[in-house]
Write a structure and sequence with these properties.
Blueprint: H1 6-28, H2 32-38, H3 43-46, H4 48-60, H5 64-71, H6 73-92, H7 97-125, H8 131-159, H9 164-167, H10 169-183, H11 197-215, H12 220-223, H13 226-248, H14 262-292, H15 297-325, H16 327-345, H17 354-382, H18 388-425, H19 429-476
């Protein structure tokens, strides 16, 4: 058996950690009604099991660049994974809802440390012309876990006890921790770095407030709640203040100058739209399969399986093509496929065969595999190496907020539009639900089509950079 190269062992290591985190979070989504029964709590209180993870994760992510430079990326990554595993063990021992929420918060902190560092650790050991395939393999965890997690979580709840939702993290998490000790490379520490306190306070309040408000919103009444608008306003003001602080600070927490690199900016736009499309689909498709077509949870899970598998396959294909040809063709093609697949879902009817839904969701999976990670890798390759950790943190924060915003938008649109259609046209619940769902897919399709120019511009920036590098080599000779 051929020995696995050390740099690929790094990819396997961070893939184990990333997959464990994302899978666990997505497994808990269908468990919220069960937690309501177990702890005799209402939906708002129990919803904090999901919300606290999202909030603490988003608040910690901006810190990872500074902490990685201060203490070393390997040590920080292992600390995050250890904290996540501790939160998992303690979560399985929770004695009431409050303790469960607290331990979920610990998991979120650990996950918030690990996610941005995963890409930074891969970039440490791979040259630019090999990073596409490496991040494509790693990205399988980020794209597949949210699609298979809800089904797996539902099976655990039905066939076992809720504690296994947390204990199931331990095997892969421990293997990931052992691999981290053995295979992650020690990274240099920056001795003269200073902590940007004002930047930390403003971005933590900003991101935390917005994610907290979005996590509380699942219906129109929630959206109209003055408290939620208060938190959103506080978050927006804090982020505006954060931008002003960072532009004036000698050693900013997140150096916003990376947005002056066009390729990075385009890649972030693609990542945000992809997150909205992915999580919007994860919300709408179960409603379509169960409420409109009357199938059960198992069929819902099977609907996501081909898409998850094809996303993984085409993510590696996209990464390999990125390394050979650049993002010009592959990212744009992927975005068009996502947009077309999503748009066709907007024209399905009550008599549409279930295999058509399988096929269209699989088509979306192919497009996401070709576009999402190659775009992110291209953007990260375009910024200076010293900003990789901070660029990854910024990308992850914006993806986190986009996915939360996507879920909030489609859930409110579905609720409001379904009610309007039933009242105005006298449709049945199933017909009204179908109308709201298909319109939701059409809106996401428009957003996906709007991201196509970003893919084209990303390719142009890559070609421009290649020509500049070739000219520099010619002058050097």
């Amino acid at each position: 058996m051929a020995k696995i190269p050390e740099k690929w062992l790094v990819v396997i290591t961070v893939l184990l950690g990333t997959f464990t985190i994302i899978l666990n979070n997505s497994m808990l989504n269908p468990a919220v009604p069960h937690f309501m029964q177990v702890f005799d709590a209402d939906a708002v209180a129990t919803g904090w099991v999901i919300t606290i993870f999202m909030v603490t994760m988003g608040m910690v992510m901006p810190l990872t660049g500074y902490l990685g430079d201060k203490f070393g990326k390997k040590q920080l990554y292992m600390s995050g994974l250890t904290l996540f595993l501790a939160g998992s063990v303690l979560g399985s021992l929770s004695w009431d809802l409050q303790s469960l929420i607290f331990f979920r918060g610990l998991q979120g902190i650990g996950g918030g440390v690990m996610m941005p560092l995963s890409m930074a650790l891969i970039f440490e050991v791979f040259p630019k012309n090999e990073r596409g395939l490496a991040t494509g393999v790693w990205g399988i965890a980020a794209m597949m876990a949210p699609t298979i997690g809800p089904t797996l979580g539902g099976v655990i709840i039905e066939m076992g006890s809720w504690q296994w939702l947390f204990l199931s993290n331990i095997p892969t998490g421990l293997v990931g921790l052992i691999f981290s000790m053995l295979y992650l490379k020690q990274t240099g520490r920056v001795s003269d770095i200073r902590f940007d306190k004002l930047g930390f306070i403003s971005v933590t309040v900003g991101v935390g407030s917005i994610l907290f408000a979005l996590g509380r919103v699942s219906s129109l009444n929630h959206l109209l709640d003055p408290l939620n608008w208060g938190f959103i306003s506080l978050g927006v003001v804090s982020l505006i203040l954060f931008i002003k602080i960072e532009n004036r600070t000698a050693q900013p927490l997140l150096d916003l100058s990376i947005f002056k690199v066009p390729a990075y900016t385009y890649s972030v736009w693609v990542a945000m739209i992809s997150s909205i499309s992915l999580f919007g689909g994860i919300f709408l498709l179960p409603l379509l399969i169960q409420q409109v077509y009357g199938y059960g949870a198992i069929m819902t899970g099977l609907t996501f399986l081909p898409a998850a598998l094809l996303t993984g396959v085409f993510m590696t294909v996209g990464g390999r093509l990125l390394d050979k040809q650049g993002p010009s063709l592959i990212v744009t093609t992927g975005l068009i496929i996502v947009a077309v697949g999503t748009a066709i879902l907007g024209f399905i009817g009550m008599d549409t065969a279930i295999w058509v839904i399988f096929l269209l969701n699989a088509l979306r999976g192919i497009g996401m595999g070709l576009s999402t990670m190659p775009a992110t890798t291209s953007g990260m390759n375009a910024i200076p190496e010293k900003f990789i950790s901070r660029g990854s943190a910024m990308n992850n924060v914006l993806r986190q907020m986009s996915s939360a915003l996507g879920i909030v938008f489609v859930s409110i649109y579905f609720e409001v539009r379904r009610g309007q259609v039933m009242a105005a046209n006298g449709m049945s619940l199933e017909e009204a639900s179908l109308t709201a769902i298909t319109e939701g897919f059409l809106i996401m399709a428009v957003l996906a089509f709007l991201s196509v120019p970003a893919g084209i511009l990303l390719g142009k920036e890559y070609n421009k950079q290649r020509r500049a590098q070739a000219a520099d080599r010619g002058e050097a000779q």
